[in-house]
Design a protein that fits this description.
- The complex is a heterotetramer of chains A (163), B (158), C (389) and D (335).
- Chain A has 163 residues and is an alpha+beta fold.
- Chain A contains four helices and eight strands.
- Chain B is α/β, with parallel strands linked by helices and 158 residues long.
- In chain B, the strands form two sheets. A five-stranded mixed β-sheet of chain B has the order 1-2-5-4-3, covered by helices on one side.
- The termini of chain B are far apart.
- Chain D has one domain.
- Chain D has 15 helices and no strands.
- Chains in contact: A-B, A-C, A-D, B-C, C-D.
Chain lengths: 163, 158, 389, 335
């Protein structure tokens, strides 16, 4: 028993030493490196003003009440029923992508941007007029390197720069 | 074991308890008994091999009744593990009390406590009646899972 | 100051490095725990009540949230319950895809549990390794579903995405990587004499008690009860796959860890089979497929990304009752849905594995040492938000 | 200037103030904590501290940490015993560092020479744990109390076997004078003559300084930080540093007892303190690094298991090591 224990101690120490001297690293060097996401990533949402048929399905399916139908000021005429278009509130959005999947005209699309960082609370609400202008580009002090996760048999995961 | 076979077995055993046995193919058997007989019914189910409870569901039908469902199944008998037996009982709306099944199925300890906490059902003989489980100690008011407790919704318009 | 002898009441949590979002009220006599009572509810969010005002599809993300590391199990169990009420079956390819995601999720959920357990007994290396090696699996799931943890991948009647191109190769690489790493895990952590000393014989749960207390998942199987929903009531593609139910006899903390490790190996086996056997075909039930407008249907076939039919926004489910159970990473997830034919469930009961295992805190810590509290806690793979729901 | 330098170079000033005294101890503290984190990070497939002076791999991370400790507000809870609470960290650090004065740097360079210097070092190093126990009591916190008591239990289970194994070397060399012991190892090092004593002493050293797997009195997942739970700011910086300083002192002793001290040095250098000092330091540093490496390999023992190890395994081993020494002395014909 004691011998077996000693062997196990030695094995544990040797394995530790093996990784100390060799071994791989799994770290993504954020924020120097920024990961490019694979196709189909469910990020922030883009809105196509022209193809939208204002059906409201996206607002109906939204599980977090993030997508709502806003009165579109430029289209609504006085005295008539107001025209409503979708807008999104990123304080609530949970990135489930149901609105994109239910949109019958493909007016909503995924982007691969996930940086929901804003200075103020109000900035995170995107009424239709702002929603159509697209998502804000994340800003960096220094332009980071774009990397892509490559799955690897030996190292598990590697981050390779993309051009 | 076949579904029909199990159902008739349960019917056989529960006959004198005034149980209504129904079933949903392929594997769910519903047993409804009056609340005075529920402990006895649970004992008999346990003797058959239904040794644990997966869920205790209390359903609120406002001003009418509460329905308590014990979703039980078996660990020790893998043939029975395929089946789910729902032991159910009705409680009057103004007197939601029933004996605890803790003696028969110790696995209901937290489940009954939760239904007590959130639905306001009283399980007589349960050691933690009157204590809070998930709600804060200071909570007062309507038990939140009852239908009287309204949750506001926003609708789709901003 | 008097010299009377008395028990010390220690409040472990909710602000404690290893308590999680809960409080353990421990009465200790010297180094021995006399009584320990878990005080849960700190992260209760009332999923069951919210489900009564949300529509059926909106509940999918809701039920995922409580157990972040093991979302697929909740997602799948809920959707299965809804499907039972709707009376529809997903097509075979969708069944296989559900199985694939469930097993990927099971592996990374086990890694999560083992990692937390490691750091609770002081091995920061086990923690970092488990969390690091969880990453390739999350990357796989992300490629399949578009999200890291909250997949919302399984919808009534099928799944949302088809296999991406070249996915099989990537999966195979990750599986090989995990297999290569396993011996090192054993050398450095599982077979480390200190780990053994901390876990063997600690928190022993006998078979009788395990059955009596209704515990679930690896904690149950570590006590020698071969109950696994995947075998007891096979769902998704499991009836067609060949795998074993992992059990251990000892019932102690180490056996619980070993069940998880061996289940990871078993999951690798399942994933390989899934990718080999997966049939071609649609990934959404025909009934819903027909409701998609024709031009979008073509797009679905090209991209492999499902577009929801409009009916999903206000899905009406026939009146009735359904119980669905699924074997998740932490154990059995049970959904009991009562529908009255409207757009939201009349009553939804969600029983998560952690909620059923919380009873073990009281049971296993009696007579243990103070230092065993985290060792036992970790071995249960207990996740407070999942218990509170 | 010249005078000042010559005063500093006087052994009785140099030893306590520069090496092995406070300056080197302090620098070592900065390096070793960084190195410990780096080693653990490498084993754990990550980078560790990196962004403070990136070209050198975050080498001055600990300077940043030190600044943080210095300027962080030390919070003194209302319920503590104030005097004991504030004084113990300084006393703990002071007593941990005190034994360095009796450690020789070379055959001719020491603060003072005593025939009992080994005993002085060992005796002084026992003082520190008392203050940990006091801290546990003074903090008036249940976790601190448990931590203090754990420290007390641990102390009694490592001190005796550690002293015995150190003394077995004194038996072997027939002296309690560290200079003589080191000089006696010109040929074969002590570790080869009495490996049992060396292993015992090494394990117990790590135990006495709360290194993994014996990080029991401050086990984070169990008792938050043990006796240190209520400490913050520079007070915490001191208590955290104390165990590293203690490890440093014991490593120097270990080097002198088992690793030949400053041997081997060429004869002409023997009177110059520089090379012997550097050799001594390097050997001790390796011992410390091994202690840091253990963190990446082991979880922590339970208190009863550590005491078991101390009383049931290490005590017999240390007694055996005394016998080994006696037998060797008899064979070699006595010193």
């Amino acid at each position: 028993m004691a011998v077996e224990r000693t062997i196990r101690h030695i094995k544990a120490l040797a394995t530790g030493a093996k990784y100390m001297l060799g071994g791989h690293r799994l770290t993504l060097m954020y924020p120097d490196d920024i990961q490019e996401f694979p196709d189909g990533y469910r990020g922030m949402i883009e809105y196509d003003w022209d193809t939208c048929i204002k059906c409201g399905l996206c607002a109906m399916v939204c599980p977090a009440d993030a997508m709502k139908m806003y009165v579109s000021k430029e289209e609504s005429e006085e005295g008539k029923r107001p025209v409503r278009r979708p807008g999104i509130n990123y304080t609530r959005c949970i990135f489930c992508g149901f609105c994109v999947d239910i949109c019958p005209t493909n007016s909503l699309k995924f982007t691969k941007v996930h940086d929901v960082a804003f200075y103020t609370f109000e900035e995170q609400i995107y009424p239709p007029e702002r929603f159509r202008e697209g998502i804000p580009k994340p800003q960096y002090d220094k332009e980071p390197r774009r990397v892509r996760a490559v799955l690897d048999e030996k190292r598990g995961i590697r981050y390779e720069p993309v051009e | 074991m076949k579904f029909e076979e199990l159902k008739s077995q349960i019917e056989e055993r529960m006959k004198d308890l005034g149980a209504e046995v129904s079933g949903k193919e392929p594997n769910v058997v519903d047993v409804k008994v009056p609340r005075e007989r529920i402990v006895e019914a649970a004992k008999r189910l346990k003797e058959m091999g239904f040794d644990h409870v997966k869920a205790v569901t209390a359903i609120d039908y406002p001003n009418e009744r509460f329905e308590i469902v014990y979703v039980s199944s078996s660990y020790s008998n893998l043939e029975l593990a395929y089946f789910i037996v729902n032991l159910r009982t009705d409680l009057p709306y103004d007197d939601p009390k029933m004996p605890t099944l803790l003696e028969v199925w110790p696995s209901v300890l937290y489940q009954e406590h939760e239904e007590h906490d959130l639905m306001g059902i009283v399980f007589e003989g349960h050691p933690r009646m009157g204590e809070r489980l998930l709600l804060p100690e200071s909570y007062e008011g309507i038990p939140p899972l009852r239908k009287e407790f309204k949750v506001k919704t926003e609708g789709i318009n901003a | 100051m008097s010299l009377e002898e008395r028990e010390l009441e220690v409040l472990i949590g909710p602000q404690h490095p290893a308590s999680g979002h809960m409080r353990l009220v421990a009465k200790i006599d010297g180094d021995i725990v006399v009584e320990l009572r878990p005080n849960i509810g700190y992260v209760h969010r009332s999923v069951e009540k919210l489900a009564e005002v949300k529509k059926y599809l909106q509940i999918i993300p809701l039920v995922e949230r409580p157990s972040l590391a093991d979302t697929t199990a909740n997602n799948l169990a809920y959707v299965m319950a809804v499907e039972k009420l709707l009376g529809i079956e997903p097509p075979p390819r969708a069944q296989y895809l559900r199985t694939l995601l469930a097993e990927i999720n099971r592996i990374h959920s086990h890694f999560y549990g083992m990692g937390i357990h490691g750091v609770m007994i002081g091995s920061s290396t086990a923690y970092m390794w488990c969390f690091g090696d969880r990453e390739p699996l999350i990357e796989l799931a992300q490629e399949l579903t578009g999200a890291r943890l909250t997949y919302s991948y399984i919808v009534p009647g099928g799944v949302r995405r088809d296999l991406p191109q070249g996915f099989e190769d990537k999966v195979e690489k990750v599986m090989r990587y995990l297999e290569n790493r396993m011996p090192d895990y054993f050398d450095l952590y599982f077979n480390n004499p200190v780990t053994r000393a901390r876990l063997e014989g600690v928190g022993v749960l006998t078979k009788e008690d395990a059955i009596k207390l209704g515990v679930t998942g690896p904690n149950l199987r570590a006590s020698g009860v071969p109950y696994d929903v995947r075998k007891a009531e096979p769902y998704a593609a499991y009836p067609e796959l060949d795998f074993d139910v992992i059990t251990e006899e000892a019932g102690d903390a180490f056996a619980r860890v070993m069940v998880r490790v061996r289940e990871i190996q078993e999951s690798i086996k399942i994933i390989r089979q899934v990718l080999k056997k997966i049939p071609d075909g649609p990934i959404l039930n025909e009934k819903y497929m027909k409701m998609i407008p024709p031009n979008l249907r073509k797009q679905v076939e090209e991209t492999g990304h499902i577009k929801f039919p409009g009916v999903f926004a206000n899905l009406r489910v026939p009146a009735g009752e359904a119980v669905a159970r699924v074997e998740g990473g932490r154990g059995e997830v049970v959904f009991h849905i009562v529908s009255d034919g409207k757009m939201s469930p009349y009553r939804m009961r969600m029983v998560t594995p952690s909620f059923r295992n919380v009873i073990l805190f009281e049971h296993l810590t009696k007579g243990a040492r103070v230092a065993d509290i985290p060792a036992i806690y970790g071995s249960l793979d207990y996740f407070p938000p999942e218990a509170d729901r | 200037m010249q005078d000042l330098l010559s005063i500093i170079m006087e052994p009785y000033v140099f030893v306590p103030l520069i090496f092995p005294g406070i300056t080197v101890a302090f620098l070592l503290l900065l390096v070793i904590i960084w190195l410990e984190r780096k080693i653990a990070a490498k084993v754990q497939l990550r980078y560790g501290p990196l962004y403070v002076l990136k070209p050198l791999g975050g080498a001055i991370q600990m300077v940043a940490d030190l600044l943080r400790y210095l300027f962080q507000e030390p919070i003194i809870p209302k319920t503590v015993d104030k005097l004991a609470f504030i004084m113990t960290p300084a006393l703990l650090f002071g007593t941990a560092y005190l034994p360095t004065i009796a450690i020789p740097v070379s055959p001719t360079f020491y603060a003072f020479r005593s025939d009992l210097s080994l005993l002085i070092v060992l005796a002084l190093s026992t003082l520190a744990p008392i203050f940990t126990v006091v801290m546990g009591w003074a903090s008036n916190n249940k976790f601190s109390l448990i931590g203090g008591i754990r420290e007390g239990y641990i102390v009694v289970s490592y001190e005796i076997p550690m002293f015995l194994s150190a003394l077995s070397m004194a038996v072997l060399y027939g002296s309690l004078d560290l200079v003589e012991i080191a000089e006696a190892q010109k040929g074969i090092w002590g570790i080869f003559l009495n490996p049992v004593a060396a292993i015992t002493m090494l394990v117990l050293m790590y135990m006495s300084t709360s290194k993994f797997p014996f990080e029991i009195p401050e086990a984070e997942s169990e008792i938050v930080a043990g006796a240190y739970t209520e400490y913050s700011g520079i007070l915490y910086g001191l208590v955290m540093g104390a165990s590293y300083v203690k490890l440093y002192v014991l490593s120097l002793v270990f080097t002198i007892l088992f690793l030949g001290g400053w041997n081997p040095i060429p004869g002409f250098m023997a009177n110059d303190p520089l090379l012997p000092g550097v050799l001594l330091f390097i050997k001790a540093f390796i011992i410390i690094v091994i202690g840091a490496f253990l963190r990446a390999v082991y979880p922590r023992f339970r208190i009863d298991q550590a005491m078991d190890l101390g009383w049931k395994t290490m005590l017999p081993l240390s007694i055996i090591s005394i016998f080994i020494s006696l037998v060797e002395v008899m064979i070699m014909g006595g010193a």
